[in-house]
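Two proteins were folded this term; both appear here.
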Amino acid sequence: MWIIELAFTPAPERLAARPAHRDRLTALHGQGVVRMAGPLADDTGAVIVLDAPGRAAVEAILAADPYFTTPGVSVERIRDWRAFLA
């Protein structure tokens, strides 16, 4: 699994792009790719947990969603996570 850590600024473009992004995450959740996702309580960022076979698959998921290149959104870290409970 993979943990995607995002950082946010208050850019209005981010808020405008968020509904389509959440729809995409919901569809990926239905496919079992997104295991968990959500903003931090203070809305300074978010965490997404993906079930993907490798870094290339993660990069493809990120590239397919314009939200990740929207002003106000930055991908801070992509971490390989070896969960033992899921």
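Next, the second protein.
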Amino acid sequence: MSKVVFITGATSGFGRATARRFAAAGWSLILTGRRVERLLALQDELGASVPVHIAQLDVSDAEAVAHAVAQLPPAFARIDALVNNAGLALAPQPAQTVALQDWHTMIDTNITGLVNVTHAVLPKLLETGQGASIINIGSVAGEWPYPGGHVYGASKAFVKQFSYNLRCDLIATGVRVTDIAPGIAETEFTLVRTNGNQAASDALYGSTTPLTAEDIAEQIFYVCSLPSHININRLEVVPTRQAWAAYAIDRDN
């Protein structure tokens, strides 16, 4: 029987690349996301080589999440890895100019959604026990602040601390927990954040060498493939061409 991975936000970026990486290794896939047409396309693409179960899902809806997990077919009921990838950033403007709804949307997806899915899938991971993995996709923004990071960075700080606290509670269960914190990576991330502004996306990633979705998918697969006695608590992954900025200092003109 092949191992099973449950991936949220599988319709683009890290999630889609992760689905492809695990499929290449022969894992069965549970893929969730809001865009059903993309889920169906992934199922068509990968289903010829591995079993694929898809579920259109808004992770912020706790009832829908619980129902989706309860309705998993028997072949997908034993879960070896959960990849909590669903998340987004909005409104890169200064906090004082941002609409409150954008803050709530980030909290609902990045925090509430993470909690909903983890709570629903955790009993199945506990049944699997030794070697099971929870991979939470954080961000360097959860550790290092920057202008316009406001709620997005705070939500990723939650991911980090939630992951650490889960480790404490699960220490005797065999279930591993990892916070993977990427730096700048060229996906649809900036297009979502800027309401489809292609020029802004091109400017962010241009003239440098960012990470790719495949780079992060490889790290996720690596962590899940480690011997069961090894747990990576946090993995911060950045491009070679990204480092830390100096302190910002406001000066009189």
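The first strand starts at residue 4 and ends at 7. The beta strands are 4-7, 28-33, 52-56, 81-84, 133-137, 176-182, 234-237. These notes refer to the second protein only.
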